[in-house]
Amino acid sequence: MVCHPILNGRDGTVRAMSARGYLGAVRFRVPDAARAGQFFGGLMACAPGRTDSGDSVLLSGSDTMTPIDAVFTEGAAEPPVRLVFRTPDPDAACARAIRAGGAGAHIGAMADSQSTPLAFELSPDAAGPPRRPATGDGALAATILYVRDTSLALGFYGDLFGLKFVPVGTSGNLWWIQGAPSIGVFPGPPEIRSIIYVPDGQAAVARVGDLGGQAGAIEAMGAYAVVGCRDGQDTPFWISWLDTDRSG
Length: 248
Description:
Layout: E1 22-29, H1 33-44, E2 49-50, E3 56-58, E4 69-73, E5 81-87, H2 90-99, E6 103-106, E7 109-111, E8 117-122, E9 139-147, H3 150-161, E10 165-167, E11 175-177, E12 182-187, E13 191-197, H4 201-210, E14 214-221, E15 224-230, E16 236-242, H5 244-247
Parallel strand pairs: 1-4, 5-8, 9-12, 13-16
Antiparallel strand pairs: 1-5, 2-3, 3-4, 6-7, 7-8, 9-13, 10-11, 11-12, 14-15, 15-16
């Protein structure tokens, strides 16, 4: 059975991540932050909030996974996508990242050993990622890092937070993090792609079009279905759901 990025067990249980840090948010650079918040809020049925700097923020929830916050910014200095790790000591995480081969001038603008954009924020809860009630129509629940060297990526994130990865399938070069939120490390041209897990895939695909986005063909990922999508501002993402016909 292929390990799925969303659920760590077929019963929907979620293991605790390292207390040293966890993936708390994905920050997307977009032309219009309010428009992006409305699109993804409509897709996941959660109301977007606003930060003092004007960013849109979505705090989706789930009963079976620890969701990742979605932040949409218009900041011209930001890369298209940045991973935001929350940790009890951002300065110490920054120092570990540098020792592991990363780079950056400060905790808000770092990069891993293969130039994946990162940031470190103070965790609001020393016990780890918070849990939130389900929003009903989905949650940003996984992120795939496409990298040139999977071994280098596994070593970097292992050194950074003590994160452990498990192999996917039999190829020997596809990996998912052991814990939640889920991070996948796959070989390929450098890219960050986020996955929104939804309870009703067909309805979610229809909502993508209704909200002004585009959805591609349905593909299989083990017992799950996935669809590549783009919102009305060309932000790429995937939606995924349990394929009951395949899972039995």
